[in-house]
Task: inverse folding
């Protein structure tokens, strides 16, 4: 599947749609999810055009990959999540329930989260 330049996170990266930014650097933008599922619910997206985690794993440079995960460390620290923990999720494709076709990592925390999969 090719990358859709008109997906909502591409528009956020271009500044066409506003967001509540938590963190930004050369590699990532992190912002609050519009429909939070926990007291803390932040999305981290790479600035490059990647459809999902599989696409990013396959095509991103080592520099982009290092940049992404270094930023995650900074973000969870700044959100104060390290001591009590948090959950990260990359929904991918149809079975994964991915709605927006630009790779994103959910960071969820701020309370004890329930079962990993809600329906199980
Ligand atoms: P996923 O189902 O993994 O593709 O998650 C997409 C998430 O993106 C979902 O939790 C809601 C969030 N979302 C969708 N549109 C917007 C938006 O315009 N702004 C923000 N901040 N979040 C959005």
Result:
């Amino acid at each position: 599947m090719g990358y859709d330049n008109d997906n909502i996170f591409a528009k956020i990266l271009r500044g066409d749609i506003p967001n509540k930014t938590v963190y930004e650097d050369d590699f990532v933008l992190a912002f609050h999810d519009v429909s939070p599922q926990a007291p803390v619910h932040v999305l981290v997206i790479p600035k490059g055009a990647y459809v999902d985690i599989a696409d990013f794993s396959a095509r991103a440079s080592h520099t982009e990959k290092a940049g992404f995960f270094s930023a995650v460390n900074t973000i969870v620290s700044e959100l104060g999540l390290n001591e009590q923990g948090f959950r990260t999720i990359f929904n991918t494709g149809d079975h994964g329930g991915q709605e927006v076709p630009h790779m994103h990592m959910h960071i969820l925390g701020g309370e004890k989260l329930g079962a990993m999969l809600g329906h199980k």
Notes: Helices lie at 8-14, 53-59, 62-78, 93-96. Residues 8-106 form a domain with the HIT family, subunit A fold (CATH 3.30.428.10).
